[in-house]
């Protein structure tokens, strides 16, 4: 996925991510929301309330600023707009946030197990996983606690709810979301086999790189 330079290009990338996320079973229907910061701006686009992620159209996006004001597009943003707004406010390096409800990541966390990173891709893209307890969707508590975790993690699990993945562009944010769920699936399978300790080799973290 190439770097987007215009609002229209960002929206098209988010539309593609929404369709792919549903196709891969990472989310059902409208169970998630997507956003991207506008190039060189203190504004971001976010999916509208109740929009199905595999049926997104350009008119389904709301444009907001970092003060939480609607400045264009769909007049009713996702109820989770604060999750995106607070994330951008604490991470100037982040230009996209992908919030989805992947079943294995949520399940493993709900069962009280940490999501383990097993592969080079898991380690390189996810690196570490933050988490919050359950808070009502759309609440200040959820947005603020997730933003606090996002200061030090690019992937954050929200207890009994979903996850957010942050990136310098839409492609990287979605890549992290996919690798987080793959790591969660691998963790679940390891637990089914009775393994509670295996993970990416500790000594390999020091020389971690990816082509």
From TrEMBL:
GO CC aspect terms: cytosol
One Gene Ontology molecular-function label: aldehyde-lyase activity
Pfam family, any one: Aldolase_II
Keyword Lipid metabolism: no
Entry protein name: Fuculose phosphate aldolase
Keyword Endoplasmic reticulum part of the UniProt annotation: no
Alphabetically ordered keywords of this record: Lyase, Metal-binding
Residue ranges constituting the Class II aldolase/adducin N-terminal domain according to the UniProt record: 12-188
GO biological process, one term: pentose catabolic process
């Amino acid at each position: 996925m190439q770097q987007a330079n215009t609002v229209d290009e960002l929206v098209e990338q988010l539309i593609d991510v929404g369709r792919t996320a549903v196709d891969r079973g990472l989310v059902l229907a409208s169970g998630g929301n997507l956003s991207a910061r506008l190039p060189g701006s203190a504004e971001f686009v976010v999916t509208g309330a109740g929009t199905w992620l595999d049926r997104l159209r350009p008119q389904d996006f709301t444009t907001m600023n970092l003060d939480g004001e609607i400045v264009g597009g769909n007049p009713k943003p996702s109820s989770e707009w604060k999750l995106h707004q607070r994330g951008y406010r604490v991470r100037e390096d982040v230009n996209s946030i992908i919030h989805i409800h992947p079943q294995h990541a949520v399940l493993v966390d709900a069962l009280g197990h940490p999501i383990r990173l097993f592969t080079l891709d898991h380690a390189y893209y996810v690196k570490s996983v933050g988490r919050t307890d359950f808070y009502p969707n759309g609440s200040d508590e959820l947005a603020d606690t997730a933003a606090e975790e996002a200061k030090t993690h690019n992937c954050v699990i929200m207890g009994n709810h979903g996850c957010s993945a942050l990136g310098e562009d839409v492609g990287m944010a979605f890549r992290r979301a996919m690798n987080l769920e793959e790591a969660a699936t691998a963790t679940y399978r390891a637990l089914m086999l009775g393994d509670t300790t295996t993970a990416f080799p500790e000594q390999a973290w020091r020389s971690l790189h990816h082509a």
